[in-house]
Design goal:
Elements lengths: L1 H12 L4 H7 L4 H8 L21 H14 L6 H14 L15 H10 L14 H6 L2 H17 L9 E10 L27 E9 L4 E9 L16 E5 L6 H13 L8 E5 L3 H4 L2 H9 L2 E5 L5 H4 L3 H5 L7 H15 L2 H11 L25 E2 L4 E2 L44 H17 L13 H4 L27 H16 L1 H20 L10 E3 L1 H7 L22 E3 L6 E3 H7 L8
Parallel strand pairs: 1-5, 3-4, 5-6
Antiparallel strand pairs: 1-2, 2-3, 7-8, 9-10, 10-11
Helix pairs in contact: 1-2, 9-11
Length: 598
């Protein structure tokens, strides 16, 4: 029908009669007349009925703008889109029937827009993505991570040994079930669901699986001081049950898990690679690293804040059970474990993360788009020159390496090499922001005019609502005590760094620095603003307690007696303005002196 209408229009425009063209191509005469004389504001030959959309062909540009915001991690709501359409129409002086009072397009316009592009858009509930995950999942960081994997797998001949590549994951299971839709009485104000608590306790389940689909029996950590033997019944065979005060893992429990892991892993055919995240309980224990080295286990850490794309999350994403207590949870966990921990899930987890077979392109490109918000090239603050974000310092050589000429492709934490990222994101819009980006818009339009959303005379959607961009980082990143991400934790270099850090902490250097900084701050407040620490009633403290509270002086301001030589334990009083101390008896005798303030 549309092709016949176009041919009939061409026939009339070339000099043919209207009635003859309508009969020749079997189209309605009245419809052909409207198209020929363009009484409808549509493209000639269009067969759609009704009025044309308010924004016309610009709706496609609006659609692309909406989808780009979603990819960057800042999806727009329906009200945001309606406000954007209204402002776009006003800026470009497009005739419209939008409400002037609400300053947004009407609901009818949104219904039509959604119907026209229903195959491309839908109303969904987004999953939360922390800013740290959005920042750290970027191309340079992921490339360094795969450089590390490639070097370790090459060193230990793991490219054809999936049974020697393990991935470890831990997840917390709450004893309070999630809220789901239920069937209840109509008209009731609320419905109740009995749970074991308001928030519930957290149980930690630790799983490890290799690329061949073999699972290590799980380890369950309950909150408490002693493990009840009842909790061990009904669990998968050879499971281990432990307890901690918080219900989370710590260094001591992770050492027990490493022992549990090594007892179920066969390292007789060669070293085993264990991939895990950089949690402090995994990376800050020298005993764990020593035990792993003694049992031929190489431990590699993931990039920080990237476990949602580089780590298998089978249990975390699929276990959703109903639990009323920690005892009924045991049976439920066994059923879910048998259902979820299958060979297919294990193999697909390694394939989707690119670990085995090794594939740098396994992580899709759209996963890196949220990092564009904070993508910046680092600038050398000393030289004033941009640094090369693709430069790669040498990575840690595995502990088994004895070759001096072995050079790997690159690794270190992405503090100095990856795009600089800021935690603060500013999203601006409206006319005030256009002056700031006018230069960028002109350069981009001159470079690629086919990418511009409108003509040079109009205002684009990006000018009205620009994509959020983090401001440049003016200060260099804070130096970390030790870099734990993208490292071979069992390498000799990392173990030396960890030993030096532990010795430094034991010697009290770090603690003294913090105490000195706090002391300077207190002195500045007491000298510059005495009224801040002044109180109405003096504080009387015991001699034993005063040993912790005394800061500047331990001598009485009147009799010059020493605080620690006070055998009578009379009690001491501190002036809240000058911070001097005096004995209680001296204060009673000299309380009328103006130099001592209460």
């Amino acid at each position: 029908m549309e092709e016949n209408m176009k041919k009939a229009i061409e026939m009339v425009q070339s000099g043919g009669k209207l009635l003859t063209a309508a009969r020749t191509y079997s189209v309605p005469k009245a419809t052909l007349r409207r198209h020929v004389y363009q009484t409808l504001k549509k493209a000639p030959g269009s067969r759609s009925l009704g009025c044309s959309p308010t924004l016309g062909q610009n709706e496609k540009d609006l659609l692309q703008h909406i989808l780009e915001f979603e990819k960057r991690g800042f999806p727009l709501t329906v009200k945001d889109i309606r406000k954007l359409a209204y402002e776009f129409a006003m800026e470009n002086k497009i005739p419209n029937k939008f409400s002037e009072s609400s300053k947004m397009a009407g609901k009818d316009w949104w219904s039509g827009f959604r119907e026209r592009y229903g195959n491309l858009i839908a109303i969904r509930k987004p999953q939360p993505l922390s800013i740290q995950r959005a920042i750290h999942l970027n191309k340079p960081t992921v490339n360094k991570y795969f450089d590390l994997l490639e070097a370790v797998m090459k060193e230990n001949s793991l490219f054809n040994s999936p049974a020697r590549i393990y991935n470890m994951d831990e997840t917390g299971l709450s004893l309070v079930p999630g809220v789901k839709n239920i069937v209840g009485s109509k008209g009731a104000r609320y419905s109740s669901q009995v749970t074991s608590g308001e928030r519930g306790q957290i149980q930690t389940v630790i799983l490890a699986v290799n690329a061949a689909g073999n699972y290590v029996p799980p380890m369950i950590i309950y909150k408490g001081k002693r493990a009840n033997p009842v909790l061990e019944k009904g669990l998968p065979p050879s499971s281990k049950v432990c307890c901690s005060e918080s219900g989370y893992i710590n260094k001591e429990l992770f050492l027990e898990w490493i022992m549990h892991f090594c007892s179920h892993v066969n390292s007789s055919s060669g070293k085993v690679l264990l991939i895990l995240d950089g949690h402090g309980s995994h990376t800050r224990s020298d005993k764990v690293l020593q035990y792993a080295c003694a049992n031929h286990v190489e431990i590699a850490s993931l990039p920080p804040h990237t476990s949602h794309s580089t780590k298998f999350t089978t249990v975390r994403s699929k276990i959703s059970t109903v639990k009323l207590s920690e005892y009924t949870c045991v049976t439920t966990l066994e059923l879910e474990y048998m259902k979820i921990c299958t060979l297919q899930n294990a193999v697909s987890s390694f394939r989707s993360t690119g670990i085995f077979p090794l594939d740098r392109e396994a992580i899709p490109d759209h996963a890196f788009i949220p990092a564009e918000t904070t993508h910046q090239i680092l600038v050398n603050l000393d030289l004033g020159e941009p640094s090369n974000i693709t430069s790669q310092p040498p990575l840690d050589i595995p502990s088994s390496s004895t070759s001096n000429n072995f050079v790997a492709c690159g690794l270190q934490q992405a503090d100095n090499d990856s795009p600089c990222c800021s935690k603060t994101i500013q999203q601006t819009s409206g006319p005030k922001f256009r002056q700031q980006i006018s230069t960028e818009q002109q350069s981009s339009s001159s470079a690629s005019p086919e990418d511009s959303l409108l003509d040079s005379s109009g205002t684009s959607f990006e000018e009205i609502l620009p994509f959020p961009k983090a401001p440049p980082r003016l200060k260099p990143p804070r130096e970390k005590a030790i870099i734990t991400g993208i490292r071979i934790l069992t390498s000799e270099g990392y173990r030396k760094e960890l030993a030096a850090l532990e010795n430094k902490e034991e010697s009290g250097i770090i603690t003294k620095k913090k105490a000195k900084a706090v002391s300077k701050k207190i002195e500045a407040i007491s000298l510059n603003e005495p009224h801040v620490s002044k109180v109405k009633v003096g504080r009387i403290i015991n001699r034993k307690e005063s040993a912790k509270a005394v800061r500047n002086s331990d001598v009485c301001g009147f009799c010059e007696g020493n605080l620690y030589d006070d055998e009578e334990d009379e009690g001491w009083i501190q002036c809240q303005q000058c911070l001097r101390w005096c004995g209680h008896l001296c204060w009673c005798l000299w309380q009328k002196r103006s130099s001592f303030h209460m």
